[in-house]
Amino acid sequence: MSLCLATTMLSASWSGQASAFELFGYKFSTSGVEAVSKAKPTADIPDPVTYSVSLTSADEALTDELKAASLLIEKKEEPASGTTGLLMRARNDQKRLIAALYRKGLYGGTVDITVNDVRYDKVPLDEDLTKASSVKVAIAVKPGPVFTFSKPDAQLSDGAPVDLQRYGVIAGAPAYSQLVLDAEDAILADYRDRGFALAKIEERSLAADHKTGKLDVTLRVDHGPLARFGQVTITGNEDVDTDLIVQQAAIPVGETYSPVAVAKANRNLRALGVFDSVIVKPADAVLEDGSLPIEISVKERKFRTIGAGITIGNLDGVGLEGYWVHRNLFGGAESLRIQGSIANIGQDDVKDLDYNADIIFKKPGVIGPASTFDAKLSVDFTNPDAYQKRAVSGEVGLSYQWTDALSTRAAFKTEYARITDSTGTDSNLLFSTPLELAYDKRDSKLDPTEGFYALIDAEPTISSDGSLAFLKTSATLSAYQAIDQAKRFVLAGKISAGSIVGASKSDVPTDRRFFTGGGGSIRGYSYQMAGPRDSNNDPTGGRSYITASLEARMKVTDTIGLAAFVDAGNTFNSSMPQFKDEWYTGVGAGLRYLTPIGPLRLDVAVPLKKIKDEPKFGVYLGLGQAF
């Protein structure tokens, strides 16, 4: 059995020590582990009143939606605070349920709420319900008929008409109240996109005619003056440089106001990783010169963090890792991260363990707000089945975010490595220029439901003496499509391929070849094992590869998901994939625990093509979807 347990990272502020923390509904502390109840303890509620509640409706199809809107039902496990508290819940429910009816165009509907068979607004405030043996709350809803829109009346402040039909409010159509609100939002968005930053709804009137079953809609829109971006002011920062914040926000001062530029400024500042909160908003008034000041308020986070993690596997043994990071080293959101790991503890001798250490530096805004400079120094002592590697490397690179979706990176890397494999030991000093082009249109990086992601990379490499030169390229395309409106069912697909040209397989250092197999490529097979192997059954890698994955994902509840998948592919000795060669396929299923930071993933896969002395199945656990 191949079993991999994902690393769990526990981070604490460098300036203080945490005595307890909560994770997935449990509280962990020095005194033990206990469940965290979502309900407020009765002892903390003054004069608690417990109650039972029921909701009935003449339209059974509407009942579930009404129950979801009811505060009395939502909080039924949490006692109300005295008689007043219960009656306040009933009063709020009256408004919430009427609003739910309006959303369905049911303007003639009624909501009656009783407490012990008495209308809630007739219950005396001084009646002590805490002494009642039981308090029964009943909600009765009569929906009434669906109203339709009459001809709507919408105008600008100067009397110019606004065509609400463009925004979904159409005479004769069901008069859902949400359509009116959506139309208002769309109208304001249209004017703000055109530079009218302070556009607002000046007047709204909804009048239901119960004789005709029509809803009259009257809107008056004040678009305000056309605005240009004005002076940018920053508040809330203490250690992060103000000039950097202005640079990264990249507000185009002097240009016509655009909400897109405001949203982009917000994203840019959050991406720095040094703020807990960022608020970018226009001032309340346009100045006489037509400019609109922009106010940026930030709250800095703690800059220093330490973390540790552990992995445990029955074949891979124990792995330990840790890091220290400073996110604002010199005041310009520069980050310095020092990290290290040890793997295979308990499986190999000390000399055969995997060791890794990295020092990583990043600085944003070196040539404008869309750029990031990075530098990395690494030491690697690794011992996979295919080879033994002892290496020191250094890399400097520059990333650039051309658009919200399109990004590039170019780097220069040098590495001295001593590689030992089945053919002997070689030492190389290699220079390379990693290049990367990415296009990301996913709606989420950790749990995408729509969109696609494309990545192309190339790495020309040459040895210090010029005797070896080759080009390594690869490409990946992932696509995602929800098949229902609630996005509970998602189909995901991925295809990857790569090629090495310019050198024979024997000349290409083993660690630079392609390998397939494992959780990142073909699940069900051990790491690097789905490809060419030598006479000892050890993987040798290849000069090309291709893999494809198809996965069906289903969200069962708000926190639990299921998946079924098939992975296939191979690594080839030639520089181009040979489709006549054998292929490796793994099939399996998985469980997802959905968290705010992404799904925790547990996958079990079975290889369809068996490999001698290899596990009959693999188990993989990680954070985020497999792709």
Q: How would you characterize the overall build of this protein?
A:
Helix content is 12%, strand content 46%. The two termini are 23 Å apart. The longest helix is centred in the N-terminal third of the chain and has 22 residues, at 82-103. The model is unreliable at 1-21 and 28-35 (pLDDT under 50). The chain has a 19-stranded mixed sheet that branches. By secondary structure, it is mainly beta.
What features would you highlight for this structure?
627 residues; mainly beta; Ubiquitin-like (UB roll); 4 domains; 19-stranded mixed β-sheet; 12% helix; 46% strand
Radius of gyration over C-alpha positions, nearest whole angstrom: 31 Å
| Distance, first to last CA | 23 Å
CATH superfamily of the largest domain: membrane protein fhac: a member of the omp85/tpsb transporter family
Q: Main β-sheet, in a few words?
A: 19 strands, mixed
Mean pLDDT: 87
Q: Fraction of residues in helices?
A: 10-25%
Care to give the gist of this entry?
The chain has 627 residues and is mainly beta.
Topology record:
Elements: E1 2-3, E2 10-13, E3 20-23, E4 26-29, E5 32-35, E6 48-49, E7 52-57, H1 60-69, H2 71-74, E8 80-81, H3 82-103, E9 110-115, E10 118-119, E11 136-142, E12 148-149, E13 153-156, H4 177-193, E14 200-209, E15 214-222, E16 228-235, H5 242-249, H6 259-271, E17 275-282, E18 291-300, E19 304-313, E20 317-326, E21 335-345, E22 354-364, E23 371-382, E24 388-401, E25 406-421, E26 424-432, E27 435-440, E28 451-463, E29 469-482, E30 489-501, E31 544-555, E32 560-572, E33 584-595, E34 598-607, E35 618-623
Parallel strand pairs: 1-35, 7-11, 12-15, 13-15, 16-18
Antiparallel strand pairs: 2-19, 3-4, 4-5, 6-8, 9-10, 9-11, 14-15, 17-18, 19-20, 20-21, 21-22, 22-23, 23-24, 24-25, 25-26, 25-27, 26-28, 27-28, 28-29, 29-30, 30-31, 31-32, 32-33, 33-34, 34-35
